Amino acid sequence: MTWAAFIMALVGPVVKRVLASLGLGIVTFTGVDLAVSSVLSQAKAAWAGGLVGDAAQLVAMAGGNTALGIIAGGITARVTMIALKRFSIL
Fold this sequence. Notes:
Blueprint: H1 3-50, H2 53-62, H3 64-86
Helix pairs in contact: 1-3
């Protein structure tokens, strides 16, 4: 057995695992992000349609849209971490 074959035997499985981890992570995060973004846009549309103009402006000035964005980011991060742990990547 040559040194090149020995090194490839050691490094090959690690590289395959890293590439699989990156691919699964991107797919998982993209799917969760798409789902949460969809729910967030529906919530904003329902919120804006259900409030009168002055109340909607007051909520916007108070940071209601920013709060929804922060909550959606937290949900996305948590669900992604759960999915990655379930697949035993982390």
